[in-house]
Amino acid sequence: EALHNMGSIGGGTQDIDFTIANVVTGTVDTSTTTFTFSNVPSTGVSSLTLILTNGGSQTVNWPASVTWGGGTAPTLTSAGIDVLTFITPDGGTTFYGMTGGLNFS
Questions:
Q1: Cα separation of 1 and 96, whole Å?
Q2: Per the confidence metrics, is the pTM higher than 0.85?
Q3: Which residue from 33, 37, 73, 85 is spatially nearest to 54, judged by alpha carbons?
Q4: How far apart are CA 92 and CA 71, in angstroms?
Q5: Looking at the DSSP assignment, which residues form a beta bridge with residue 6?
Q6: How far is C-alpha 96 from the chain's CA centre?
Q7: Among 2, 5, 11, 80, who pairs with 105 as Cys (CB 3.0-4.6 Å)?
């Protein structure tokens, strides 16, 4: 596993590139943030762990390829840390999004 710290996420589109890392951290601090996933390996099962600080302080949008358990994305913590996991068995066509834990503080 490789770690990539995105630092402050100031809104707009934030790409998570699987060739850089599959464990990513970032702090949501201003305006709406839309995540995209790129360079997902085309074979095998791939996973991503996103450690997001203050994700609920702003609007966060997920790629259309993400399917959440229960059909709804989790409500993120506005002042704390959330751990999210994404798994794809098909090269990124579908990602299964799961909550590893919410509101670590």
A1: 19
A2: yes
A3: 33
A4: 18
A5: none
A6: 11
A7: 80
